[in-house]
Amino acid sequence: MPERFFVTPLENQDAKKMVPSLSFLIQHSNPSSQRITRIVFDLGIRRQIDQYNEHILNHVATRRPLFTTPDVIESLAQGGLSTDDIDAVILSHLHWDHVGTPKEFQTSQFIIGSGGHALSQGKPGGGSHNHFEPDLLPLQRTIELHHPRDRQRDKSHHPTTATPWIDTLRSIPWKPVGPFPFALDIFGDSSFFIVWAPGHLPGHLNALCRKKGGEYVYLGGDAAHDVRLITGEKDIATWADNAGQVCCIHQDPDAARETIDHIRKAQSGESALGPVQVILAHDSRWADEAKRERKFFPGHI
């Protein structure tokens, strides 16, 4: 990954680094029924690269070398699970390196942020990374969350085959949690929140998960592509394309900075949540440590 597209200032404008595209398994046990609900947050990179469309493949060619194994399905299998065991998939957003292969999840519900459906059907935005797949998700099993500021909740993109648990997302209100102004308390017990995290792309979502010990872990998706943005050591980069147009990896840099500020406050413990562990989708340092400490499934964070 060329660092100059993500952070500034840089001493070496040619600096590159290998990064992961992380996926996470969340398991929630109902205290009454003991039923376990399993959610996968982000699906990472597609195992079979040639299944992306032509526009995405042109961008992928600029991101070599690229490794696709183990992917989500192989990782689940290492812990004895298959896609049939996954109740829901939450996509932080619809960029190619987060959507994996949804068609392999034949029984799972899909959750995307407000604006995600229109984004996938519309024209690509600026930059070679902003190309999408109109037929990516099964519409009958995909719920698009209502915008936090919408009084009239649009139900046009709710699935016709929604399970009772997923169907409750129609009525759950967005409320503040810690430093985050908008979050959905999915299970009603403060154990798992979908967090509205604007800036990177329309409908960008993050997740706040409570561990058994009570500590929280924040899954930051592409809210930031480098931990130095969270610490304040670096700022969001911009660059000029071949036509001289100024580009940014975030569609709304100001909103992205505000989201990063919320994450920074959570990480530093400036709220009732206490110090929150923050994991970004492309955090190579965290991934290396997790591998050494065997945190990847069937391990745990």
Write up what this structure looks like.
There is one protein chain. This protein is of the alpha/beta class and 301 residues long. The chain has a single domain, classed as Ribonuclease Z/Hydroxyacylglutathione hydrolase-like (Metallo-beta-lactamase, Chain A, 4-Layer Sandwich), CATH 3.60.15. Helix content is 19%, strand content 20%. It contains 8 helices and 15 strands. The strands form 4 sheets. It has a 6-stranded mixed beta sheet. A 5-stranded mixed beta sheet has the order 2-3-4-5-6, with no helix packed on it. β5, α4 and β6 form a beta-alpha-beta unit. InterPro entries: MBL_superfamily_lactonases (IPR051013), Metallo-B-lactamas (IPR001279), RibonucZ/Hydroxyglut_hydro (IPR036866).
- Unreliable stretches (pLDDT < 50, length at least 5) are none
Under the CATH scheme, which architecture would be assigned? 4-Layer Sandwich
Task: Note the beta-strand portion.
Answer: 15-25%
General form: globular
Please give the number of β-strands. Answer: 15
Sheet having the most strands: 6 strands, mixed
Which sequence of strands runs across the widest sheet?
7-8-9-10-11-15
Number of domains: 1
Highest CATH level, the class: Alpha Beta
Average pLDDT for all residues: 92
- Indicate the CATH topology: Metallo-beta-lactamase, Chain A
How far from one another are the termini?
26 Å
Structural class: alpha/beta
**Total number of helical segments?**
8
